[in-house]
Write a structure and sequence with these properties.
Immunoglobulin-like, 52 strands, transmembrane beta strand, 22-stranded antiparallel β-barrel, membrane, Maltoporin, Chain A, signal, mainly beta, CarboxyPept-like_regulatory, five-stranded mixed sheet
């Protein structure tokens, strides 16, 4: 009996094992996207177990499973898919792309991460956000599309510099621009212009080669870049080839441009009437003895200005503004080829941009070429190369503060002819005629840039990779400025200035990455590495004059070499960095990073710094009480803290420097800069709290953030006593803060088969304040800007205009002296010398944002972006010449004629016209204006020809489109444009500054 029982139990056990073994089998297959491209790294998990695997580089997978088991396929950026195992052994899966932006893959420093599990504040813009926008630089295409990022081109010149502020200005004396990283390469981004107006070094990057742009805004995301992340980091990723059908794309567009706005100036008759009246009004203050003397003087002046023409009968009425502006144009042509096999993928692109500016004499021509190659040697070993070359030729004009700048022509009276009877420019004008400069000189800048990277990665163990990069960035710029003998201010038979700058940037990095899903609930990511970044710069220039004729335009044609200079400099950064991310059950998210930077720019006692960051997130919607909600389908709380630095202070600020001198024709050296071994970087500590939400499966989504940034150790040149032998010493003294709120809302308003409409809205508020300054918090005043504790950085500081005395037409100013109780004396005076300057405005907007709508109806697509800025003021430094109540002979804005005080009792803001009277011409809020505006930044409408129409010609897509930039502007600003600023100095100020261009282009995009 016992033997039978033992036999039965053994038989049942063997049968059970046999059945179990029979149901467990090997399951394999390939996972691809909906374009047929294999997907590496797809997670395949068997539901209810801890068993799982990932696809290899070719999208293949293999695992053991029993019949009836459910395989869950998941991959960032794609919808999850489940498959039940049946008798079949092969399951080839196609994953559909997810429209949910939470599944986006974001490029972060030295890696990528899913937005769903991100604990940082990063905004991503794709190629669709910047393509087909007719601008000469890719940064302008980002305006209004990234919360907390303010982008302003200095003025309407095609080569104009850009100011980009990520969550406000974090420095006073050091750089305020973000760090740009192109395919892992920190780019050289110094302004190398020699004519007083900045150029944009990143003009060399073509939008058609960009796949995505990520802006790292908080310290948790930027701290991995350590001492260079305080102003934010902009990561640019270029396009790559994909396995599958090769694609060839061609895009051609052409457009016309004009100034967004022109101002009203006096015509000849108005000019004559106003200045005749101004001369008569000056009799009472003793400028002239009687009316007859005044009339005689002013008519003699008119005779001279008219240059022999009959001003009494209106023979000349020159519109100098129209002469300064011109109708511009923008032409773009680019192509790209991409494709690949299971082993190799390639992307090749080329582009040409020709831009004729809206200001006479200003133009740009750029061509780019790029090749990106990736090759897989084995399942473990992958290498690649990125290489690009660009050349940008710029026809430049003088800076805004130069008399020969075209826009200063508006100062010329309308009674002055622009040309002589023989067609040559009139040289007998009150100010130099810019047409003489244009006809007899040129200023050409050429920027050549080579950018390349070789990289590779090897998988040592499953999930563990070693990565290596070597990158090279060459920025080579030449400037050639020829001024002929007939140009204004030229008395040496011509002059040539030629310069060149060569900046080479080397980057070597190596790092380990470990990414592993541990069971069903744990995901771990580790990164650790080192990086060396070395930059060398060489500059030289030479000036020659005395040319035999204007046919000789290079240095060797000059008889006299009158000046020359040259220098070399170098800096290096050596870094160690590490980052760890942990995700538990897609609910609890943690991240920590640290970077240790050493920089040759800082003192020997403070050469190394440590920049840590921590962040955490909680995906509340994954909890049981929200998991089944059909309304609130995504909710995440996150917070971060970290430190970043600012090293943008030049190469040798901490060193004792000596320069060569000549004494009695004998060489020597002298101290040119005292050293400071304790000099170090400015440090910004930032805290960020955010909430991300999604309703109705992503139909409505967005985020709200609050941040606080404190920058300590501000870099200042502190004055020294004269006996020290030097004027200043670079030191870390001062503190400021930025704090603000950002709001983002994305909605899919309509999603039907033939009609789709989505909206993206962002709004940001930033408050900037100086907390401490050197030398006992003393004010630092430069021109019309002040650094004062408790105020904004570079606050506007000037006399406060109080209008016009109705009794006599005098301009009035508030005295603004301090009363014993601390209040201000608000009495008025007609003497600017009796009034006191006060803080009157903020040069930076407090509120800024944008809204983008994207609409698709059948084959028609429409997108448009509005941007807005509020809270900033602009001081028109040229106003005391342009709107000066006929104080001197500059042509005047029309309001000086139409709104002027003429009789007792007149109520107006325009004082009585008085020649040489200085009536209201002091630098005051008379020339200060709010720059609030809303602008239709860009709009595009396109039509895609149906596929059945074009397939017979071997085409896969044909689209025609029309796009515009700066189409409409809604503002009360009285100047040219609320975004135009001076390129010759002064923060928040304009000075004969050109407005941006309004451009409308037609284009054609064809894909094979």
């Amino acid at each position: 009996m016992k033997n039978k029982l033992h036999f039965s139990l053994s038989f049942i056990l063997m049968l059970t094992c046999y059945l179990s073994f029979a149901q467990t089998k090997s399951v394999s297959g390939t996972v691809k996207d909906d374009q047929g491209v294999p997907l590496p790294g797809v997670n395949i998990a068997i539901e209810g177990t801890t068993t799982g695997t990932q696809t290899d580089f070719d999208g293949n997978y293999n695992l053991s499973a029993t019949e009836g088991a459910v395989l869950n396929f998941s991959y960032v950026g794609f919808k999850n898919q489940k498959v039940t195992v049946t008798s079949a052994s092969t399951y080839n899966i196609t994953l559909a792309a997810s429209a949910d932006e939470l599944d986006e893959v974001l490029v972060v420093g030295y890696g990528t991460q899913s937005k769903r599990t991100l604990t940082d504040n990063i905004v991503k813009l794709t190629s669709e956000d910047i393509s087909e926008v007719p601008v000469s630089n890719f940064q302008s295409a980002l305006v209004g599309k990234a919360a907390g990022v303010q982008i302003t081109q200095t003025n309407g010149k095609v080569d104009g510099g850009l100011n980009i502020r990520v969550r406000g200005a974090t420095s006073i004396s050091a750089g305020t621009q973000p760090l740009y990283v192109l395919d892992g390469i920190p780019l050289y981004n110094a302004n190398e212009s020699s004519n007083g107006a900045p150029t944009n070094p990143l003009l060399s990057i073509s939008p058609n080669e960009i796949e995505s742009i990520e802006v790292l805004k908080d310290a948790s995301s930027a701290a991995i870049y350590g001492s260079r992340g305080a102003n934010g980091v902009i990561i640019i990723t270029t396009k790559t080839g994909k396995e599958g059908k090769s694609e060839f794309s061609v895009n051609i567009s052409h457009g016309i441009s004009e100034a967004t706005n022109k101002r009203d100036w006096l015509n000849s008759s108005q000019y004559i009437e106003l200045f005749r009246e101004a001369a008569l009004n000056s009799v009472s203050d003793g400028t002239f003895s009687d009316d007859a003397e005044a009339i005689a003087y002013i008519e003699d002046t008119f005779d001279g200005l008219a240059n022999g023409t009959d001003w009494r009968n209106g023979a000349v009425d020159t519109d100098w503004q129209d002469l300064a502006f011109q109708n511009g144009s923008v032409s773009d042509a680019d192509f790209s080829m991409s494709g690949g096999s299971a082993k190799t993928s390639i992307f090749f692109a080329g582009s040409l941009n020709e831009t004729k500016g809206i200001i006479k004499g200003n133009a740009l021509r750029r061509f780019n070429g790029r090749t990106n190659i990736n090759h897989k040697f084995s399942d473990r070993f992958n290498i690649g190369m990125n290489l690009s070359y660009s050349r940008t030729d710029i026809d430049r004009i003088a800076n805004d503060n130069a008399f020969v700048s075209p826009l200063q022509a508006i100062a010329q009276p309308a009674i002055s002819p622009a040309y002589n009877e023989d067609g040559s420019p009139n040289s007998n004008t009150i100010y130099p005629n810019f047409l003489l400069q244009e006809e007899n000189s040129f200023y050409k800048t050429i920027i050549r840039r080579v950018n390349g990277r070789t990289f590779g990665d090897y998988e040592i163990l499953e999930g563990l990779k070693i990565n290596g990069n070597f990158a090279y960035d060459l920025y080579y710029q030449t400037e050639d400025n020829f001024t002929g003998r007939n140009a204004p201010f030229q008395a040496t038979n011509g002059e040539v200035f030629a310069s060149s700058v060569n900046a080479e940037n080397y980057i070597v990095s190596g790092f380990l990455t470990y990414d592993k899903q541990l069971g069903d609930f744990h995901t771990l990511g580790l990164t650790a590495g080192t990086e060396l970044n070395e930059t060398t710069r060489r500059y030289e220039s030479v000036t020659a004059n005395q040319f035999p004729s204007d046919d000789f335009t290079t240095v060797d044609g000059g008889a006299d070499i009158v000046a020359g200079s040259g220098n070399r400099s170098q800096n290096a950064f050596f870094s160690l960095f590490a980052r760890a991310t942990y995700d538990y059950a897609n609910k609890y998210l943690f991240k920590a990073s640290i970077r240790r930077d050493g920089s040759s720019r800082f003192g020997e006692n403070e050469r190394y710094g440590v920049f840590p960051a921590f962040s955490a997130g909680w995906v509340i919607s994954e909890e049981g009480f929200l998991q089944d909600s059909e309304v609130l389908t995504y909710l995440k709380l996150r917070g971060s803290w970290g430190k970043t630095g600012n090293a943008d202070i030049g190469d040798f600020p901490s060193r004792y420097l000596f320069g060569a001198i000549s004494y009695d024709q004998r060489p020597g050296i002298s101290l040119s800069q005292p050293g400071n071994p304790d000099l170090t970087w400015e440090t910004t500590t930032q805290t960020d709290y955010g909430i991300e939400f999604g309703f109705f499966n992503g139909r409505i989504s967005g985020e709200i953030d609050y941040y606080h940034k404190n920058t300590d150790g501000l870099l200042f040149d502190v004055p020294l006593i004269p006996s020290s032998g030097a004027a200043t010493l670079s030191s870390n003294i001062g503190e400021l803060e930025n704090k603000g709120v950002e709001f983002v809302l994305n909605t899919d308003n309509v999603q039907s088969e033939n009609f789709q409409w989505s909206t993206s809205f962002n709004l940001a508020y930033n408050k900037n304040e100086i907390l401490s300054l050197p030398n006992g918090n003393n004010d630092i005043v430069v021109g019309q800007n002040i650094q004062r504790v408790g105020e904004n950085v570079n606050a506007l500081y000037m006399l406060e205009y109080a209008g016009v005395d109705p009794a006599n037409g005098d301009a009035l100013y508030y005295i603004n002296s301090e009363n014993p109780d601390g209040s201000l004396n608000r009495e008025t005076t007609n003497s600017a010398n009796e009034a006191n300057r006060v803080v009157v405005g903020n040069p930076f907007p407090e509120w800024y944002g944008g809204i983008t709508n994207t609409i698709n109806y059948h084959n028609i697509d429409l997108s448009f972006t509005f941007q807005g800025e509020f809270g900033a003021s602009i001081y028109n430094g040229g106003g005391r010449f342009q709107s000066a109540s006929a104080d001197y002979f500059d042509n005047q804005t029309l309001d000086q004629y139409t709104d002027r005080w003429q009789n007792p009792g007149d109520i107006t803001d325009v004082p009585q016209a008085r020649l040489f009277g200085g009536n209201g011409t002091a630098q005051s809020t008379r020339y200060l204006d709010k720059s609030d505006f809303v602008r239709l930044r860009n709009a595009t409408i396109g039509y895609t020809i149906p596929k059945e129409t074009i397939e017979q010609y071997g085409l896969s897509s044909v689209r025609v489109y029309c796009t515009g930039v700066n189409l409409l502007t809604f503002t009360d600003y009285d100047g040219y444009d609320p975004e135009a600023r001076s390129d010759a100095g002064g923060v928040g100020q304009s000075f004969y500054s050109a407005p941006p261009a309004r451009t409308i282009s037609l284009g054609l995009n064809v894909k094979f």
